[in-house]
Structures are given as C-alpha cells and as structure tokens.
Amino acid sequence: MLLDKNHEITLILAKALAFSWETTMALVFLGAPDHPISATDLEAAKQKFAGLSAEMSRGVLEAYKLRKQTASLDFDNRRLPQLHVGR
Predict the structure, then answer these.
(1) pLDDT band for position 70 (cuts 50, 70, 90)
(2) 3-state secondary structure of 26
(3) Mean pLDDT, all residues of the chain
(4) Which pTM was predicted?
(5) How far apart are CA 31 and CA 25, in angstroms?
C-alpha cells in the first residue's frame, strides 16, 4: 500500500486521518526505503496532499471498503460446479 510510486494512497490515507504534512512526508519516505525521492517529486506530493480534502479522502476510503466487501461477498456466495454427479 505504501509502495505505490506516486504515493497517492499514502496521501489519501494521511489526509483522511488528518495527519500533518510532516507526518505524511515521513510515511512517504518509509514507503520508499530503496527508492530515492527527488525534491521535485516530494514537492509534487506536498501539492497533491494540500489539494486533498479530508472529506473527499474519507469518501475514497469508504468506496474502497465497500468495493472490497462486495468482492468478498461475491466470492463467498459463488457456486462452484459439481465435479461429479451422484445417482
């Protein structure tokens, strides 16, 4: 989750949880230990973070949660074909 190259999910989670930019930046760096982050990329992430609203970010997370729950229900309720027919 923290390993996406654009750090978008990290930014959304941090904004939804009302984290500061400093805390969010620390998470971005923790998510990229083997990938250096340029000053340009960091500034772009900061601008994206500043442009997010907490309400919208929580909405994105809620939609993701609902999609995951629906996918789980679909998997649990599917019927597998019978492998053999009993008489």
Answers:
(1) confident
(2) helix
(3) 84
(4) 0.69
(5) 10
Tokens encoding 73:
């229900």
Q: Is the dihedral of CA 8, 11, 15, 17 positive or negative?
A: positive
The answer to whether the beta carbons of residues 1 and 9 sit under 8 Å apart is: yes
Task: Report d(CA 41, CA 14) in Å as an integer.
Answer: 17
CB contact set of 11 (below 8 Å; sequence gap of 6+): 24, 28, 45, 48, 49, 52
Residues written for the chain = 87
Sequence-separated (6 or more) residues with CB below 8 Å from residue 6: 45
> How do residues 71-85 score in pLDDT, each as one tens digit?
777 665 666 666 666
Nearest by Cα to 41 from 1, 5, 3, 2:
5
